Automatic annotation (TrEMBL), chain A:
Residues 273-292 are annotated as: Disordered. This is tRNA (adenine(58)-N(1))-methyltransferase. Belongs to the class I-like SAM-binding methyltransferase superfamily. TRM61 family. It comes from Citrus sinensis (Sweet orange). Its main location: nucleus. One of its GO terms (cellular component) is nucleus.
UniProtKB/TrEMBL annotation, chain B:
This is tRNA (Adenine(58)-N(1))-methyltransferase non-catalytic subunit TRM6. It comes from Citrus sinensis (Sweet orange).
Length: 311, 438
């Protein structure tokens, strides 16, 4: 998945090969991760797609089924992976993930500690941020989920940058071998205040910690426990609002509501949109945008803090 | 579990400041953020007095300083904060029962008995900031009547004025791009080591610098301009980049990256424009020792206005050259392989007008992210891309960011909030184009 491996890096010359992980795109809200295998076929409501048809084509290609339906084959990225991975636990999405990576100041070469691993959604993006010279050490107290996460990291090609450990961080803290070595630490635990003393030992001077909690009571308790040894404690909430667009054909009288149709009078020539045969309309004000009806209201609170400089 | 031998990135792990490095001075817990270059001659204005920044050289990032009232005037001295062991006591008292309220308090500006001259006199006699604050509290007629929350707020306010603290921070740059917006652009643009990222950066170099930081010295960030004159990249200087990272920041015009062979006239024009740009950058950096960022909101996550404060300092900039013209081999590489992704911040331009020319430069299945402060231009761009099947997975997002004040019995969202995160159109380039549809 990461361009650090030159054989995997996307380019005009790179084509889909046996064993590659592709993201099968039906619609923006319907995608699936598939491993390419010479003799396999992918089935969906559009029909059956032979993998052998895919081999040799570039990523980003449109491919057809035996019934003439089509899908696109995309190269995996951490963003796409977050949307297709199997949820063993509740996961973090792009808004929280991108904010965490920026606020933890992660760059190639950093050492990050994470707990819990969960389904590995954030972990995959952490790996991208610190590769190829950094590393992510992630811990989960659930043995099977840790194993599933390891499998996923193999599948997506980030396993050289991620080490999964089975450990109860709330109960035991992080392993001593990391003391004073972590650039950043990320906590997604039910009782993060129990892990904060250990986090303090693990962080380098001026290191940064982030704790993600769905409930405000958890945030309050975490902040209390942070005040002792941390500074710059800030809590945020980040959400994404998405928009949908629509073509407005004024002359045809289409669109919502009769009232608004009447008030828009254009002297421009009517034109029809015919896929690729469209004539360019210089005045494209007929495209409208509005927020999507379904919106995510809350994921969790993100609390960041810097280790106090005491020397 | 064995510990990998992790190679440390020299700049990210630079723990201590050095002569000539860029720093961010955080005055009074985020109230005021000032960029500065640490030289023996540079100063910081606090209140109406200037303090030398010399004591900050050689200190660890994250160290705290306070303003002392010395004989020669105010100076900055290092403080080591002690763990707050009285925090728990105070919190218990607040939660246990607050019976006071503000019914008897009249705001007539007569509560404080000490005058301005009294305070100046105290300063002259060498009183510390803390002592002045204690004196103000003792001489306030209404202090005892206030609720404990109100008392805490009052004390904090006086401390900020009479005992200001300065926190030495690593620089991070912001302009009109809110931090969450920028972070989304970097994720949606799949910025990682070894990538070749094409950027259109009209944010003064903020985007270019942020991308370069995440590339870590490998791959390239190609800063391209629509038209003839390259966009300024001043903000890149603030990042304290190593030579390696500076080399990964290159410039190329749209014609350079699209044309088969170099048009010598155009490239010469661009070359001289680039050289002028680099020269003027270096001149500017030798005369600018401070750039003041004034916050337009308390929580510091909204727009910051960059004001250059020109004070004559005869120090030659030690910043490495950035934004060199991309070499012929690099241009060839990009033509053969395509860019890994594209990020656009061009608030004054209509996106579709140039995205249609830049998108073919991206590798197949490469992601892109386009920022705009207005929704409509992105809507029309999205529609055009859809109709021509140039991209899929298209989405227009608007980031929403809210900060919280978290204190015992006083937890709530902050009073101020930024309303302008802008909009981002993201998507992935397809390998098919309209003509191959049938």
């Amino acid at each position: 998945m990461l361009p650090t491996d030159p054989t995997k890096k996307i380019s005009f010359t790179r084509c889909i090969k046996e064993g590659d992980l592709v993201i099968v795109y039906e619609r923006h809200d319907c995608m699936k991760a598939v491993k390419v295998c010479q003799n396999s076929a992918f089935q969906n409501r559009f029909g059956a797609f032979k993998h052998s048809d895919w081999i040799g084509k570039p990523f980003g290609s449109m491919v057809f089924s035996n019934k003439g339906g089509f899908v696109y084959l995309l190269a995996p990225t951490p963003e796409l992976w977050t949307l297709v991975l199997s949820h063993r636990t509740q996961i973090l999405y792009i808004a929280d993930i991108s904010f965490v990576i920026m606020y933890l100041e992660l760059v190639p070469g950093c050492l990050v500690l994470e707990s819990g691993t969960g389904s590995g959604s954030l972990t995959t993006s952490l790996a991208r941020a610190v590769a190829p010279t950094g590393h992510v050490y992630t811990f989960d107290f659930h043995e099977q989920r840790a194993a599933s996460a390891r499998e996923d990291f193999e599948r997506t090609g980030v396993s050289s940058f991620v080490t999964v450990g089975v450990r109860d961080i709330q109960g035991q803290g992080f392993p001593d071998e990391f003391s004073g070595l972590a650039d950043s630490i990320f906590l997604d635990l039910p009782q993060p205040w129990l892990a904060i003393p250990s986090a303090k030992k693990m962080l380098k001077q001026d290191g940064i910690l982030c704790s993600f909690s769905p409930c405000i009571e958890q945030v309050q308790r975490s902040c209390e426990s942070l005040r002792l040894n941390f500074t710059d404690i800030r809590t945020f909430e980040i959400l994404l609002r998405t928009y949908e667009i629509r073509q407005w054909r004024a002359d045809c009288g289409q669109g919502t509501g009769g009232g608004s149709a009447g008030s828009i009078r254009h002297k421009r020539k009517q034109h029809l949109i015919e896929g690729s045969g469209e004539k360019e309309n210089p005045n494209n004000s007929t495209v409208m945008a509005r927020p999507n009806g379904e919106a995510r209201g809350h994921t969790g609170y993100l609390t960041f803090a810097r280790l106090k400089c005491l020397s | 579990m064995s510990q990998n031998n992790v190679q440390l990135d020299p700049i990210r792990n630079a723990q201590v400041t050095w002569e000539g490095c860029s720093v961010l001075l955080d005055i009074n817990d985020g109230d005021r953020l000032v960029f500065a270059r640490l030289t023996s001659g540079s100063t910081l204005k606090i209140g109406n007095k200037n303090c030398s920044l010399q004591p900050l050289i050689g200190c660890p990032f994250g160290s705290l300083f306070q303003v002392d009232n010395g004989k020669e005037g105010p100076n900055l001295s290092r403080v080591i904060p002690s763990p707050e062991d009285d925090v728990q006591e105070k919190e218990d008292a607040q939660i246990s029962g607050e019976f006071r309220d503000n019914r008897a308090i009249v705001d007539d500006n007569k509560a404080q008995c000490l005058s301005g001259e009294d305070i100046d006199e105290m300063r002259r006699q060498g009183a510390t900031g803390e002592e002045i604050v204690e004196a103000l509290i003792a001489n306030s007629a209404t202090f005892e009547k206030k609720t404990s929350f109100s008392q805490e707020k009052y004390k904090l306010k006086k401390q900020k004025k009479y005992a200001p603290k300065v926190l030495l921070r690593r620089p991070f740059a912001r302009r009109f791009l809110r931090v969450d917006t920028l972070s989304l652009l970097l994720s949606m643009g799949n910025v990682a080591a070894n990538s070749d990222v094409l950027v259109v950066d009209m944010a003064g170099g903020l985007l270019t610098g942020a991308v370069a930081e995440r590339l870590g010295g490998t791959g390239y960030v190609c800063n391209t301009c629509i038209g003839d004159s390259p966009y300024p990249m001043d903000i890149v200087r603030i990042f304290n980049f190593s030579n390696e990272i500076c080399k990964s920041i290159v410039r190329a015009s749209v014609s350079d990256v699209t044309s088969q062979s170099e048009t010598s006239e155009q490239s010469d024009q661009l070359e001289s424009a680039c050289n002028m740009e680099i020269q003027s950058n270096e001149q500017k950096s030798s005369s600018v020792s401070m750039e003041d960022i004034s916050l337009s909101s308390e929580n510091g996550v909204s727009d910051l206005i960059l004001e250059a404060n020109h004070s004559p300092v005869n120090k030659i900039s030690k910043s490495h050259k950035v934004g060199e013209k991309a070499s012929q081999e690099t241009l060839k590489l990009w033509k053969e392989n395509g860019f890994s992704s594209m990020i656009v911040v061009a608030p004054e331009l209509d996106p579709w007008s140039f995205v249609k020319d830049l998108l073919p430069l991206l590798s197949y299945s490469a992601p892109f992210a386009i920022y705009h402060q207005y929704l409509q231009p992105l809507a029309t761009c999205m529609h055009s891309l859809q109709v021509r099947k140039m991209a899929i997975g298209l989405q227009i997002s608007e980031p929403w960011l809210r900060e919280y004040q978290v204190l015992p019995s006083r937890t709530h969202p902050c009073m101020q909030m930024s309303g302008c995160g802008g909009y981002i159109l993201s998507g992935t380039r397809t390998a098919t184009n309209a003509s191959s549809q049938q």
